[in-house]
Prior knowledge:
Distance between the termini: 37 Å
CATH architecture: 3-Layer(aba) Sandwich
Low-confidence stretches: none
Structural class: alpha+beta
Strand content: 15-25%
Number of domains: 1
CATH topology: NADH Oxidase
Shape: globular
Largest sheet: 7 strands, antiparallel
Mean pLDDT: 92
Radius of gyration: 19 Å
Amino acid sequence: METIIVDDMVFDPEAGELRKRLLIEEGSEDERDFDRMLAEARSVAKPKAVFRQALVESAGPDRVLLDGVTFSSRVLAVNLKGRGRALAFALTSGREIETWAEAYAADALLSYWCDVILEAALLCARERFNAVVTGTLGFEKFSTMSPGSLEDWPLSEQLPLFSLLGDTREAAGIRLTDSLLMLPRKSVSGLLFAVEERFESCQLCPREDCPNRRLPYEAGLLKRKFAKGP
């Protein structure tokens, strides 16, 4: 199946919500500076998504084969068992807005503002991608897993994932570093699959101070649902 690029995104975040997050006072000089920066970011930002549908050729007990590419994960194998397809994806705030942010790197406060704006651009990519998944591809309920989010599915699984996606650097400006992190920095990748009951890797992660937690940790879930059989 072919890799699809979604690059028709309009980056238009709610300025008031971002100011509130940054504790910027209404009517202040900071507000004027932030609004100017946000206007600059809007003018250059081009968030993108790249994805590919893949057939689940086999799943289990600790391996998944998607269009001839092997992934190693017990949790992923259980989640994909009985599924006909999955989506490999990568989302990014875009090189354009990251290049813009570099001009403010020397100022700690403005650099932090840029970081929040870049996160908003990545959220724009995620929301547009989710709309495509539900509106065009027919996934009514779905969950995602990202390499490195669990010990069971380490960051090294970026390699088969990007092998499945193809040339993401040409398609969306996303590349892997030697340490398997993504550039631009505000990028996320993973596999998406249909579910009857919502699943998040957060449910298997006991870390208490995670700012991106989406569901509470469930202490017994790993043993109950994902433990190996006899």
